[in-house]
Design brief:
With about 300 residues, the protein is an alpha/beta fold. The protein has eleven helices and 14 strands. Helices cover about 35% and strands about 25% of the residues. The longest helix has 16 residues, at about 165-180.
């Protein structure tokens, strides 16, 4: 049974259409990602899945139940990590878990045992009696995940869970999430970190202006929209435009795609191909500055949502 099924899901705030008829389905043990710019509708979608925000229209089933009718029942089976730190600063690390467990009807003795297991799982077992204000940002995020797991949830809702973390803390959290996924826990993840999406997500959707504009595995999306190789020519404002035009004509226009943004040109090749050596040699001979790298999920994101800054 799918853990999430959304069909033509819509959410309006007055005249603002935050979510405009999205469709997605998440399987048990799958990590499904939502990528999009700020204001694209990701957090609104997660809030509806969490049953704290009612849809304007459409159908939404979470863990086999209709979200609009069984919100309380569904919430008891979810684990949630929000963008904001919602830990209780007046309690210790262990007390945060024990008190949170009581919201799920878990008795104190069982809650204490689960808390100790989760604190060990998140490498927080040496911090059990520490006050929240004494924890670093990375330790707080790990505690947020431990707290989300206290009720043995069937589905994790993760809204930018590693924002602000250093690489060591981020990778530690990723490994723990991978372990949970291998145990059959479903996940829906909103993130701005492309490495995170590529590392964790089995499938993902790019969402913009409340619409899903593309869906696939990370590898499928990279092959489809970025290709194997990307070349960037930069510092063009001091170069002869005619020289740039001659250079681009040398590339096979049937297989290579170019786009210009400010004083840079980005070139993309189809999957399984590379830029011709003659093109790179001529670019260097003409004095263009360039880099050549592998296509990435960030290229996919920028190609589909644009490179312009937004409010």
């Amino acid at each position: 049974m799918s853990v999430i099924i959304a069909s033509d899901l819509v959410k309006h705030f007055g005249m603002v259409e935050a979510v405009q008829g999205i469709n997605l389905e998440v399987q048990p043990g799958e990590c499904y990602g939502l990528l999009g710019p700020n204001g694209a509708g990701k957090t609104t979608t997660l809030s509806m899945i969490r049953c704290i925000l009612p849809p304007t229209s459409g159908q939404l089933k979470v863990l086999g139940r209709e979200a609009g009718r069984f919100g309380r029942t569904i919430r008891q089976r979810l684990g949630v990590v929000t963008q904001q730190d919602t830990l209780d600063p007046d309690l210790s690390v262990r007390e945060n878990l024990i008190v949170y467990a009581s919201y799920f009807g878990i008795r104190a003795r069982e809650a204490r045992g689960r808390s100790d297991e989760l604190l060990a799982f998140m490498a927080l077992d040496k911090k059990v009696d520490v006050r929240i204000e004494e924890l670093s940002g990375g330790l707080r995020r790990r505690l947020m995940l431990a707290r989300a797991l206290i009720s043995n949830p069937e589905l994790l809702v993760l809204d930018e869970p590693t924002t602000g973390l250093d690489p060591q803390s981020r990778h530690h959290l990723w490994q723990r999430l991978r372990t949970l996924k291998s145990q059959g826990v479903g996940m829906i993840l909103s993130t701005h970190t492309m490495d995170e999406a590529e590392f964790l997500c089995d499938r993902l959707s790019i969402i913009d202006y409340g619409l899903i504009i593309e869906t696939g595995t990370p590898q499928e999306l990279i092959a489809r929209h970025a290709g194997d190789e990307v070349v960037e020519l930069f510092g063009l404002k001091d170069r002869d435009p005619a020289a740039l035009e001659r250079l681009l004509k040398q590339a096979d226009r049937e297989s290579c795609r170019f786009e210009q943004h400010q004083d840079s040109v980005f070139g993309f090749t189809p999957a399984g191909t590379s830029f011709p050596g003659s093109f790179l040699q001529e670019a260097r001979r003409e004095g263009f500055q360039l880099t050549v790298r592998k296509g990435s999920l960030e290229d996919v994101f920028l190609n589909l949502t644009g490179r312009e800054l937004r409010e």
